[in-house]
From TrEMBL:
GO terms for biological process: cellular response to oxidative stress. InterPro entries: Glutathione_peroxidase, GPX_AS, Thioredoxin-like_sf, Thioredoxin_domain. GO terms for molecular function: peroxidase activity. The active site is at C74. The lineage of its organism: Bacteria, Pseudomonadati, Pseudomonadota, Betaproteobacteria, Burkholderiales. It comes from Rhodoferax saidenbachensis. Residues 1-24 form the signal peptide. This is Glutathione peroxidase. Keywords: Oxidoreductase, Peroxidase, Signal. Pfam families: GSHPx (PF00255).
Length: 196
């Protein structure tokens, strides 16, 4: 803390002495408070589908996040391909897709291994996937509780999509029928990525 205050004083002194360019470069490289803090909606940990290790969602702070409840044996399951394409297209610009398998609508595999096989081997999913959990009703997982408090429409079926801006605010919800690469969804993603 002392070092940071000293640096600020020195940089301010440099600015007064005509060293404005040095200050501008330093400010540009410093993380903004919004990007460095973890929004409340992301302050949760879940087990990864790949290896059941714990993953903290705070690592996605400052990114545009698309949360999707998935199922292995649903008419919308082929949307995994579109979700992966969307993730690949916008990842470098700051989009992350988070998949939450759920058997709420009785169309998820019985084991994590079977779910993983469908996601990774059948559809080539590379975006983060988590172990099966409840996403609707009274027992929904804490992320979905926070999403609902943030104004998101809750899933009525598999592959419901919820978009968060870089500050963790809910900006849109899309029902299952909205394809991942639809104009409606990609326009919302583009807008969220461009906003600072």
């Amino acid at each position: 803390m002392f070092f940071r205050k000293t640096l600020v004083v020195l940089l301010f002194g440099a600015l007064l002495a005509g060293g404005g360019a040095v200050v501008a470069q330093t400010v540009d490289k410093a993380p903004t408070p919004a990007a460095s803090a973890c929004p409340v909606v992301l302050q949760h940990q879940f087990l990864r589908l790949q290896d059941e290790s714990t993953q903290n969602l705070c690592q996605y702070a400052g990114k545009v996040v698309l949360v999707v409840n998935t199922a292995s044996y649903c008419g919308f399951t082929p949307q995994f391909e579109g979700l992966e394409a969307l993730y690949a297209k916008y990842y470098a610009r700051g989009l992350v897709v988070l998949g939450f398998p759920s058997n709420d609508f009785k169309q998820e595999a019985k084991s994590a291994q079977e779910t993983a096989d469908v996601c990774f081997n059948t559809y080539g999913v590379k975006f983060p996937m988590f172990t099966s959990s409840v996403v609707s009703g009274a027992g929904k997982n804490p992320l979905y509780v926070a999403l609902e408090k943030g104004g998101a429409a809750m899933p009525r079926w598999n592959f419901h999509k919820i978009l968060l801006d870089r500050r963790g605010r809910v900006v849109a919800s899309f029902p299952s029928q909205v394809e991942p690469q639809s104009t409606q969804l990609t326009a919302a993603v583009e807008k969220a990525l461009q906003a600072r």
